[in-house]
Design goal:
With about 290 residues, the protein is an alpha/beta fold. The protein contains 11 helices and 13 strands. It has 2 domains: about 210 residues, Rossmann fold, CATH 3.40.50.300; about 70 residues, no CATH class. The strands form 3 sheets. It has a 6-stranded mixed β-sheet with strand order 6-7-8-3-9-10, with helices on both faces. It has a 4-stranded antiparallel β-sheet with strand order 2-1-4-5. It has a 3-stranded antiparallel β-sheet with strand order 12-11-13, with helices on one face. The chain is globular and about 75 Å long. It starts with a strand and ends with a helix.
Amino acid sequence: MEVEDLTKHYGAVRALDGVSLQTAPGEIFGLLGHNGAGKSTMIRILTGRAKPTSGRARVLGHDVPRDLEAIRGQINLVAETPNVYQRATAKENLELFCTLYGLPKKRGAEALEQVRLSSVAGRKVKTFSTGMRQRLLLARALLNSPRVLFLDEPTRGLDPRSARDLRETVTALAAGGSTIFLTTHDMNEADELCQRVAFLAEGKLVALDTPRALKLSLASTAPAVDVVLDDGSDIRLKLDEPQDTARLQELIAARTVRSMHSLEPTLADVFIHLAGRSLEDDRADEANQW
């Protein structure tokens, strides 16, 4: 999958502004950015639901949306909105889509097994928890064994166990050769899952690399350690400042250090450094609207 100098304008708004990137088969690729940065626009274009203003987008070697029919059966999407039939059972939901895909109904049972929902296949979806509904959405997206799977905020609103289960399923899919294109607000999730991540800010690509490389690029600017002393107190020492380095040597020589931990920047730190504010600010803004 690749995009080249991709732009999308809505009037005067540049939702995407000259973005270029590529993904590899079996890669879990993360796209991160604030609300309105262009993440959803990118997924709409790559899944053929929107036409770029200029530039090029190719999925499995085909231009989208022009050649969408050639790849429609090889891609799928788990959208943020849980659009499932609430009054139907999980089994009925998937059997309906098996019919639409031209697949045998037993494929629905197999997909439920993949996401660990077989035991509740006969329950109506309206009785499901948020996590169970999200796993059902994933099962539906797996029916056609997609070579490229788009995940839009897949673990948002999930409890830790459900989020962990979903991540394990996604990791297994990638190990089987599927490309996963993921958008998320959860930096820890991106760090854990993604081989590479891209940061979008106001429609522009501001970084693209492995999570480790991005963190190391920021770590080199201010190396530091947290030191816990025998009396329970803790101090932070910057290793690029001579007085702090000398202080650390004194503490070690005096055998008063209980533990010491290097302070490595997180992916969230890198994003704030590049984009100016945290993704958590988006969630705070959304909460304030309610």
